[in-house]
Amino acid sequence: xxxxxxxxxxxxxxxxxxxxxxxxxxxxxxxxxxxxxxxxxxxxxxxxxxxxxxxxxxxxxxxxxxxxxxxxxxxxxxxxxxxxxxxxxxxxxxxxxxxxxxxxxxxxxxxxxxxxxxxxxxxxxxxxxxxxxxxxxxxxxxxxxxxxxxxxxxxxxxxxxxxxxxxxxxxxxxxxxxxxxxxxxxxxxxxxxxxxxxxxxxxxxxxxxxxxxxxxxxxxxxxxxxxxxxxxxxxxxxxxxxxxxxxxxxxxxxxxxxxxxxxxxxxxxxxxxxxxxxxxxxxxxxxxxxxxxxxxxxxxxxxxxxxxxxxxxxxxxxxxxxxxxxxxxxxxxxxxxxxxxxxxxxxxxxxxxxxxxxxxxxxxxxxxxxxxxxxxxxxxxxxxxxxxxxxxxxxxxxxxxxxxxxxxxxxxxxxxxxxxxxxxxxxxxxxxxxxxxxxxxxxxxxxxxxxxxxxxxxxxxxxxxxxxxxxxxxxxxxxxxxxxxxxxxxxxxxxxxxxxxxxxxxxxxxxxxxxxxxxxxxxxxxxxxxxxx
Length: 533
Hints:
Elements: E1 5-9, E2 12-15, E3 18-21, E4 70-72, H1 76-79, E5 81-87, E6 104-111, E7 117-123, E8 128-134, E9 140-147, E10 155-163, H2 165-168, E11 173-181, E12 186-190, E13 203-204, E14 213-218, E15 227-234, E16 246-252, E17 260-266, E18 290-298, H3 303-312, E19 321-326, H4 331-334, E20 336-341, E21 361-366, E22 376-383, E23 397-402, E24 406-411, E25 428-433, E26 438-445, H5 447-452, E27 463-469, H6 471-474, E28 480-486, E29 523-529
Antiparallel strand pairs: 1-2, 2-3, 4-26, 5-29, 6-7, 7-8, 8-9, 10-11, 11-12, 12-13, 14-15, 15-16, 16-17, 17-18, 18-22, 19-20, 20-21, 21-22, 23-24, 24-25, 25-26, 27-28, 28-29
C-alpha cells in the first residue's frame, strides 16, 4: 500500500490524514500486543505471487452471474437498480486465491482512508468472517478471512453490525452473532482492521451473555448521553415452548464489559389466547396494538443458565428472534428498535402456533426517552400470521435494515409456504414504511432464471440477507445499499458442472475452513441503488 500510517499513541491512528479512534480491546493495534492490528501494510498475494499496492490492483468489474437472478418488483423495477458485485464463482483478477464461501450473512463497511473500503462479511456455514477490499465503485480488489472456523469453534457467524465513532461514540468494531453449530455461542468482538494472520483466535463479550445469537446491535450514541445500549436477538428454536428472549445490555459509553444485562418482560406476563393481551408469549399480541413492557435484570451469562433465568423471570417468549436494527434520523428515532421473529411450524405440535409465530413477525420497541432500563412499549407492526393483514404472504422474515423512514425486511423461507396460499414465489425483500405503516414488495430471488443457468434449483429456497446502507460511508449521491444471498442448493451434489470456479476450486477458502468441513455452497454479493431511505 502506498499510503502509510503512523501510530501516535495506542488508541489513535492517522490514516492518510483521517483520524480514527480505536477502543481498547484485546485485539490491539498494529500487532503491538503481538496479537492483532490494522491490515494496511501486509497486502494480499496477487496472481504473480507478489504483494500488490492498491494502485496496482485490478477490480472485478463484472460478475459471471447476471443481475437477472434477482427481479425488482412494481415501482422499484424502474426506480431502483441491482448490480452483482461478486459471487462464489468469480475469481478476483488481483487476488485469485480468495474464495467467497458459504452462507454470506451479516456485513459492515469501513473506510480504509485511502479511497478503498473494508467490507466485513460473515460466512455463516463456514463459521468464519471475511474482509473484502472494495474500491470507490464498490468493486472487489482483494479478500481474505480475518476470523476462521477454528477461532469460532465451528460456531456459525450469523448477522453482524458495525460500531463506529460517528454513530456510536467509540470503535471501530464489528460485532458478530454466534448462533448455531459449535459450543461458542454469544457475541463476538472483532477489530475490522486486524491482521489476517490472527484469524485463528477471536474474542467474545461475556457481559452480553450467551444466546443463540443472531445479532448484537449497538444503537446510536444520541439515544442516551454517556450510555452504550446493545440489543441481542436470541434465535432459540424450541419446538415445544417458544423461549427466544429479547436482551439488552447497558453500560457506560464504550463499555462492553462491566454493564448490566436485562431481558424484556410484558407488564401482563401471563399466557392468553392469541391476540388477547397476555405477554408471556408473543402470540398474545395483536397487530397495531401497543403494549407495556419492562426490563428485568438477570445475573447469569452462560447459555443454559441464562435461558432458564429468562424463563423464570417470565420474559416474553418469542419464536426465533432474528435480526435487529434501530431507526436513524434523530435521538428520538434512535430509541425505536425494530426486530424480526422468523417463526417456526411443527405439524406434530399445532399448539406451538398459539404461543409463537408461524410465518414471522416484525416488532417495534419504543424505549423510554430518559432511561433505557425504564418501562418501554412494544408494537407488532407486521404480522405474517394475520389473515388479510399487511404481512399476509410474508414468509420467515430474517434480517432487517432500518433507515430514517423504512424498514427493509429480508426473507429466509422456512419451507412451509403451502400452509398459506398467499405465499408465492421465492425469497423476497420487503419495504415497511414506518410513517404510513404499509408493506411493499421490493425484490424477489429469481430461482427459475438461476436454475436455467445451472445455479441451484427451484426447490432449495435462497435467503436474502446482510443488507446494509452504505450511502454516507461511500459519499454516494444516491441511496446505495450492499446485500447478498445465500444460494442454497448451489453446490457440487446439485450442480456438478457449475458449482466450482473456472480454476476448479470449490466454493470454500482453506483460510476459513478445511475442505472436509466445508459445505461448498455458493453466495452472492450485490449492490442496490435508488431505494429510498
